[in-house]
Amino acid sequence: MRLRSFGDWTSNGSTARPGRLLCFGWQRLFCSRSNYTFAAATHSCVTLGFFSVAAARMLFDTPVFFIFLTIVVAGYWLLKWRSQNVLLLLASYIFYGWWDWRFLGLILISTVVDFYCAKNIAVSNNSVRRKSLLTLSIALNLAFLGFFKYFNFFIESFSTTLSALGLPVSVTLLRILLPPGISFYTFQALAYIVDVYFRRLEPAESLLDYALFINFFPHLIAGPIQRPSHLLPQVQSPRSFDAQKFSDGILLILTGLFRKCVIADNCALIANAAFNGKMGEPTLPIVVLGTYAFAWQIYGDFSGYSDIARGAAQLMGFHFMVNFRQPYLAFSLQDFWRRWHISLSTWLRDYLYIPLGGSRGGEKRTYRNLMVTMLLGGLWHGANWTFVVWGAIHGAGQSVERFLRGRVGSGQEPTAQPGPLRLWAKRIFIFHLVCLTWIFFRAQSVNEAIHFLGGLGVPEWRPEFLTACKFLALFSVPLFLMDLCLEVRDEEFLFQKMTPARQWAYASALVLIVALFSANEANAFIYFQF
Cα–Cα distance between 512 and 506 in angstroms, integer? Predict the structure, then answer.
């Protein structure tokens, strides 16, 4: 009695079998043309209930993770504070090693080096020694990140450039595996060493505490990127059990599963079909469907992951920063980045944009700083020029916004909201601009993105597209309405301010919805690859 995935409805010689729970004629979309086979071809996995089991990965929507989490939480509250930290650190290394034990040594080396560099920086008054230790720590972290994530990218880009100039060279690319979560824990480590250097933070006295701050498993693989000043004091202080916070943690996890398994995974079925060519060559309806579907997929996917991470941490008495605040209700690109992936956007602001000069030094330098920040922010997401283009569009867009604010003379602060009609007009415009940039984020190459965009000029309509629109609306409108409710009520998660009885009624409904409407085809969390 579950809604079947797009991959179940094909007509390549097999009999179409629509889902027994809900059909709505969707099988027509998948069976009307023999050459269209819709499948969310991502990671090899099987499905158990509403969970996906990916080989050798403890994903946040797998039974093995929740068994692991239950054991850790149960043992955690039986121990005293220091023993709790030991248990959490061991659990975090088990969690990371479950992904790929070969990179445990890498994260251990960076953890130990950063810890002792920070301690020596804090006690030294010698500026040369302090800078040398800071440089050592930063260089080591960036060297690991640069080699594992960008070595082949830069070598290949260099070779392509020389070939374009008529100087072909032969290069050998290395088969390099990307360590899980390296982009996230590297930025967290860099924030720590920089804060200690500028004496904004006292260094951790215990290697155990610092290692747990870096390696705490809820945020280890895909964030949110925790600020040292926020998480480290929590690690260094005893935690007490709070029934309300524990209950809120469960609600956050369930909300995250709804966003990921119901919204993101179902929207991924359309997005993958459109971008992978399973619907045929790009046309206007395919581009629109694929773009909107991916927009809701990536939002549901990453905000869902963040909710699960925050909920898991809260079960153990920790508080993680909110990582999303209704980003598709933003009325400017600047406002979008105040709402989207907040842990990254604030990191880029504080550790890159402001050190570059921020808005000081005149308009031209401000535009330069915006562009550099967003270009590097784009490249942080992956070793592909598509991410650079994605970052460049956002940087250019924010520069244009700043330019227009200075010329139009509205006199409003950037955070001031316009009237209702103008507000919604701006929200609709920004949403579509963001959706346009997602095409480059999703495409495998810049040429592929341009080819996909070319479909906007081909207004070919097929009746089955209407069915796809209904399917997309069914799994995106609920998240939109949820965001509207959160915006109006100013809550971190839905029903946060309701009575416990209503909260548990809501939780029961979520369990039922997730069990019935999760997509059969599983898609690993998008941001795990970064």
Answer: 10
Instruction: Classify 366 as helix, strand or coil.
Output: helix
**Considering only CA atoms, which of 100, 304, 276 is closest in space to residue 182?**
100
Give 470's contacts (C-beta < 8 A, 6+ positions apart). 24, 26
- Residue bearing tokens 């959160």: 486
CA angle, 475 then 217 then 225, to 5°: 70
- Residue with the bigger pLDDT between 397 and 164: it is 397
- Over residues 306-330, the pLDDT tens digits come to 999 999 999 999 999 999 999 999 9
DSSP letter assigned to residue 414: T
Length of the chain: 530
Query: Is the torsion defined by CA of 83, 89, 93, 95 positive or negative?
Result: positive
Q: Which helix (H) or strand (E) holds 48?
A: strand 45-48
Q: What is the pLDDT of residues 126-140, one digit of tens each?
A: 999 999 999 999 999
* Alpha carbon distances (Å) from 358 to 222, 345, 371, 414: 27, 14, 11, 15
**Torsion angle, CA of 127/132/133/138, rounded to 10 degrees?**
120
Q: In sequence order, what are the residues at sequence separation of 6 or more whose Cβ sits closer than 8 angstroms to the Cβ of residue 258? A: 304, 510, 513, 514
What DSSP element (H or E) covers 298?
helix 284-314
The secondary element (H helix, E strand) that includes residue 92 is: helix 81-100
Q: Find out whether 438 and 336 touch, Cβ atoms under 8 Å.
A: no
Distance CA 521, CA 358 (A): 44
Given a cut of 70, is residue 527 above it in pLDDT?
no
**Paired tokens of 37:** 């086979």
Q: Residue 26's pLDDT is what?
A: 39
Is residue 45 pLDDT above 60, yes or no?
no
pLDDT band, residue 23 (cuts 50/70/90) = very low
Burial track 124-133 (b if 16+ CB lie within 10 A, e otherwise): eeeeeebeeb
CA within 13 Å, CB half, 434? 26
CA angle 440, 99, 375 (to 5 degrees): 25
Q: What is the mean pLDDT of residues 19-31?
A: 36
Cis peptide before 224 (omega within 30 of 0): yes
CA distances to 58, 70, 76, 82, 320 from 87, rounded to whole Å, are 18, 13, 7, 9, 19
> Which range, 28-37, 144-153, 188-197, is most confident?
188-197
- Which of the four pLDDT bands, split at 50, 70 and 90, describes residue 25? very low
Letter string b/e over residues 73-108, b meaning 16 or more CB atoms within 10 A of that residue's CB = eeebeeeeeeebbebbbebbbebbebbeeebbeebe
Question: 371: closest CA among 415, 403, 418?
Answer: 403
> Which active-site residues does the annotation give?
381
Arithmetic mean of pLDDT over the chain = 85
From CA 80, how far away is CA 522, in angstroms rounded? 39
